[in-house]
């Protein structure tokens, strides 16, 4: 899909706050509210905007701890990796999963209300996924920045 400067501006603005009205976005992008709605609908239909969600304060809902996990597998056979990916994707506590290069095969971001909940999740993971060789855990002491924003350059050539 071709994205022009207006589309790129909109993408940056809705990543900042997806709850902005078409009228507010129109003021900032210098288009009509109906043009804003058409462009956003097209970007949703084309899969540029995958979904919209609310960012909540984890402390307000009892999930104050973040765990960053490096995970190694025994074998990188496609069917075994697919099984592990599917298992990880189905876990509510697992926020992000990255298949990476380097010493680890996966890096996970997990949130849980306490270490006991985290430990139970990881025990289940190892028990239900025999291809997991080992994992190491880092506990986030402070969250300095958290987000999923993708900076969208306004210039098409950038």
Automatic annotation (TrEMBL):
<dbReference type="GO" id="GO:0043565">
    <property type="term" value="F:sequence-specific DNA binding"/>
</dbReference>
<dbReference type="InterPro" id="IPR019887">
    <property type="entry name" value="Tscrpt_reg_AsnC/Lrp_C"/>
</dbReference>
<dbReference type="InterPro" id="IPR019888">
    <property type="entry name" value="Tscrpt_reg_AsnC-like"/>
</dbReference>
<keyword id="KW-0804">Transcription</keyword>
<dbReference type="GO" id="GO:0006355">
    <property type="term" value="P:regulation of DNA-templated transcription"/>
</dbReference>
<dbReference type="Pfam" id="PF01037">
    <property type="entry name" value="AsnC_trans_reg"/>
</dbReference>
<keyword id="KW-0238">DNA-binding</keyword>
<dbReference type="InterPro" id="IPR011008">
    <property type="entry name" value="Dimeric_a/b-barrel"/>
</dbReference>
<protein>
    <submittedName>
        <fullName>Lrp/AsnC family transcriptional regulator</fullName>
    </submittedName>
</protein>
<dbReference type="InterPro" id="IPR000485">
    <property type="entry name" value="AsnC-type_HTH_dom"/>
</dbReference>
<dbReference type="GO" id="GO:0005829">
    <property type="term" value="C:cytosol"/>
</dbReference>
<dbReference type="InterPro" id="IPR011991">
    <property type="entry name" value="ArsR-like_HTH"/>
</dbReference>
<feature type="domain" description="HTH asnC-type">
    <location>
        <begin position="3"/>
        <end position="64"/>
    </location>
</feature>
<dbReference type="Pfam" id="PF13412">
    <property type="entry name" value="HTH_24"/>
</dbReference>
<keyword id="KW-0805">Transcription regulation</keyword>
<dbReference type="InterPro" id="IPR036390">
    <property type="entry name" value="WH_DNA-bd_sf"/>
</dbReference>
<dbReference type="GO" id="GO:0043200">
    <property type="term" value="P:response to amino acid"/>
</dbReference>
<dbReference type="InterPro" id="IPR036388">
    <property type="entry name" value="WH-like_DNA-bd_sf"/>
</dbReference>
